[in-house]
Amino acid sequence: MTDSEGRSCPLGYRYNPASLCETVTPVSEDVLYVIGGLYGNPFALDEIEQMARAEECQGRSVKLVFNGDFNWFNASDELFRDINNRVLSHTASLGNVDYELAKPSTGAGCGCAYPDFVDQGVVERSNQIMTRLQNTAELHRDIQQRLAALPRYYSLLFEGLKISILHGDPESLAGWGLAHESFDAGNGHQLAEWFRMSGADVMASAHTCLPVLWSGLVDGRSRLVANNGSAGMGNLNADPRGLITRISRAAPTVEPVSGFEHAGLQVHLMPVDYDVHAWLKQFDRLWPEGSAAAHSYRDRILEGTFLSPDNIVFPPAL
User: Fold this and answer.
1) pLDDT band at 28, cuts 50/70/90?
2) pTM higher than 0.85, yes or no?
3) What is the domain range of residue 269?
């Protein structure tokens, strides 16, 4: 293993922001769920499906879109098949994890393209998790083929607006340009250019594990970024719930973590209140104390992150 593994970005991850909205798929459903970072958590998936059924009981149809990294902790044959069969029955695009399971890139490691501010120990443990998960995936060639056929992004036409469904950022499957850290650092010029080039009204991403909501004007036109952080792990301080992005003209009936009204749409980060103790019991069997995943993620599964709901919303200005 070299120091670049887990930090480099394979050429196959890259694309031009201008290509993001070249092909636009109309959405007929009333509600759009964008689900990034499920990380192989079946109990979070159970809860998301229940959330969709509750919406449908109120007369609203729901489209589920998984924008990558739905695999990660599911390093057993049974769970690997279960997660992928369930997710691939919906609309799905690749994350770096799923890409590296379908067709591993030489020297990519986990494919996370971690920036310099991420500790090398985190990078090395992620590479170890990926190696184990790749060994599982190799026993399921049919799933690998289905993953290999997935696109790297989608553009959806929803209620007259272009929704760009990404995993990383508008230049790379594993890009960090829509990360919480990038907004903290002030990425307004680059963000404006990405919106101009892509023509998107909304960018919905994941990959970087911390949630973000940004709303502002680019060339006088209202735009929005929603990064749901992780659907399968806690995102906020002392809060183990996952998050998904919900987009609809109808307001949610469950209390959101945060959200905006954007050009007539309600865009919210919604909590995924799954059975964390049931998941932790299964996680501990797969990743016992001392394992790479336990070291990197067990505390977050139980306790969430350092963020409060106020910390995930950024000023509406470029």
Assistant:
1) very high
2) yes
3) 11-314
